[in-house]
Amino acid sequence: MKTMKRINKIKMYCTTAAIMISGCSLLSSCTEEVVIADVNESQYESTDELLGYLTDSQGKHLKSEVEFHSSGELALYLNLTKKSSSDCMVSVAYDESVLEEYNARNSSSYALFPKEQTILPQEPTMKVEAGKQKSSPLLMSFTSDGTLDADSRYVVPLRISITSGDMNLAQEENTRLIFITDRTGIPDCNKESGVKILSCMEVNDTNPLNNLSFTLKKSGKLLTDFLIMFSGNMKYDREKGAVMMKYNNNVQALLDGYDHYLKPLKDRGMKIIMGIMPDHDGSGLCNLAPETCKEFALEIKAMCDAYNLDGIFLDEEYADYGDYNLHLTVPGFVRPVASACSRLAYEVHKLQPEKDIIVYAYSTIYSLPAIEVDGRTIQSGEYVTYAVRDYGVSSDLGASFPGLPKSNMGVYSQEYTGRFIASKTHLQWMVNNGYKTHMIFAMDPYRSNFEYQQLPSMQDIAEVFFDDELVFDGVKYPKDWE
């Protein structure tokens, strides 16, 4: 259909723009990244039609997210697929019916962010001047009255209308959702530099409350921003014929004891993420058929809802595909391929667009390719929030996750059992090159290397990433559950 071809063409242009924003400085490298992303250019309609589409300051096309204390802001841009001989302009309006239609279409129940707290310019328009392909920013701002639930996401629904010019908008481009989190009134972990520290903890041995013991002297904020619980498992239930979530006794104890083990972290602004990893039974992140991905995404949503989780961490290890070859005997499975994980991540994002999806760029999911959904090409950078390299690996993730901002790429991940500890030089290289995501694995103050490896490493993180001094209050939380 022509409408779908229009959308495909817009996706191609958005992918290129997002990659450029993510840090490409040379035309040759940007071109190379687009090729590696496996975009099938044969699907794009060869046409002279001029199409318009919206992006935000991070190049995000499908949606935008804003998290703030007291107030926040967002910049939107109108882009054209090619230069126009005349000015092209759209208007932007807050329209409640946009969210009503979205909730009805997706069986969701997102609430409106109040119109009176959404501030649009006096003339809310974006204009691309003749001979150009991108408008000046339309700056929106958001204020807080302190009444919104800090653990909920709210939506600013916008309707986009053409006011002048010879361009067209595909149906998908006529609306835009901005997901708002108002953190006013509670502490947060956001530091001025913007660097996010992901604490992936081996919770079989370690109490997650240990994250409370490490703060920064100047800001008083926690050193770590995310707790990744390592790990929940995916398991194929052969009696039910469904892929389910499974938790060992340690993970289940923490979930059951949410108010004691996890809520204190949430109350300080940390996000709680559940690891999802195969469990040696032939089912994995990379062999689920599209329909099975949809069903498992519902299972993941139920988990996040039940335990007030902020997202998931996808880790493709221990699937043991070759021992079972489920795709040969069981309906709902496919031959293991990275695009199956792309589809799963997309389905999770579709059901819970406000949740974080973090990918451990390792094994089969070292790279997530583009996927086709209802005739549309969607790149992994549109639904993956963060991607992190294996321990000590520093190579850029732009080609592996097209559209993912460089700030959300994690390199030089550290393994606090001693396998890899990043040096100050490594950390400074990250700062110099714009990488603002960093994972530490298996932090545990009871481990023998705490004083001579873990603690010095966290001190380096505080100094290099935050220009601050680490404060360890001396409190160590033991594993106190059975």
Short summary:
By secondary structure, the chain is of the alpha/beta class. The chain has helices spanning 2-21, 27-36, 96-106, 249-256, 258-261, 263-267, 290-307, 321-324, 326-329, 338-351, 424-432, 450-466; strands at 52-56, 64-68, 71-80, 88-94, 111-112, 118-119, 125-128, 138-143, 154-164, 175-182, 196-202, 214-216, 226-237, 242-246, 271-277, 311-314, 356-361, 371-373, 376-378, 386-389, 409-410, 414-415, 437-441, 470-472.
Structural class: alpha/beta
Number of strands: 24
**Portion of residues in helices?**
25-40%
Give the rounded overall mean pLDDT.
90
Q: What is the overall shape?
A: globular
What's the gyration radius in Å? 23 Å
Characterize the largest beta sheet: strand count, sense, and whether it forms a barrel: 10 strands, mixed
* Fraction of residues in β-strands: 25-35%
- Ends distance: 58 Å
Name the assembly state. Answer: single chain
The number of helices is: 12
* Poorly predicted residue ranges: 1-7, 16-46
Explain what this protein looks like in three dimensions.
The N terminus is likely disordered. The chain is 26% helix and 26% strand. The chain is an alpha/beta fold and 482 residues long. The strands form five sheets. Strands 11, 13, 14, 15, 16, 17, 20, 21, 22 and 23 form a ten-stranded mixed beta sheet that branches. Strands 2, 4, 5, 7, 9 and 10 form a six-stranded mixed beta sheet that branches. A four-stranded antiparallel beta sheet has the order 1-3-8-6, with no helix packed on it.
